[in-house]
Amino acid sequence: MSNIRNLSAEERVVLDRWLQRKGIQLTYRNAEQLCDALQVARMFNIIQPGLEDLSSYSPFLSLPLNFLNWQIFNHRVLRKLDMGVSMGDLEKLALGCTETVDALLFNLMAKESSLKKKED
């Protein structure tokens, strides 16, 4: 299971630069957007195209349905990338906790080089 932790200020700067290089708008730190796994799945698909079929998700605003989307994303994407998260972290993600999403994206950034090697 992936270790979700708060990023240091330096790690956050590195993450922001990486997201900019990937063409991802940094407006994602809006809790209303972040609580929906669909938004983060779209980011993952920008970073690693074809990783997941986005039709599996429906945009929701209620906590129980957001949590369901995060469970699906955890099962279909994160665990396959060896980045699966705990139920407690899934709840934080469903609540739109920006620090938890930042940590998740930071872990993806760290894993990117190994993902590219698998493609070659």
Number of strands: 0
The string of secondary-structure elements, in order, is HHHHHH
- At CATH's second level, what is the architecture? Orthogonal Bundle
What is the third-level CATH name, the topology? Actin-binding Protein, T-fimbrin, domain 1
Q: Choose one word for the global shape.
A: globular
CATH class, named Mainly Alpha
Rg, Å, rounded = 13 Å
| Alpha-carbon distance between the two ends | 26 Å
Supply the helix-strand structural class.
mainly alpha
Quaternary class: single chain
Mean pLDDT: 82
What percentage of amino acids are in beta strands? under 5%
The number of domains: 1
Helical content stands at 55-70%
Poorly predicted residue ranges: none
Report the total helices. Answer: 6
Would you give an account of this structure?
This protein is mostly helical and 120 residues long. It has a single domain, classed as Actin-binding Protein, T-fimbrin, domain 1 (Orthogonal Bundle), CATH 1.10.418. Helix content is 62%, strand content 0%. It has 6 helices and no strands. α1 (9-21) packs across α6 and α4 (63-78) packs across α5. The longest helix is centred in the C-terminal third of the chain and has 22 residues, at 98-119. The radius of gyration is 13 Å and the shape is globular. The protein starts with 8 loop residues before the first helix and ends with a helix. The mean pLDDT is 82.
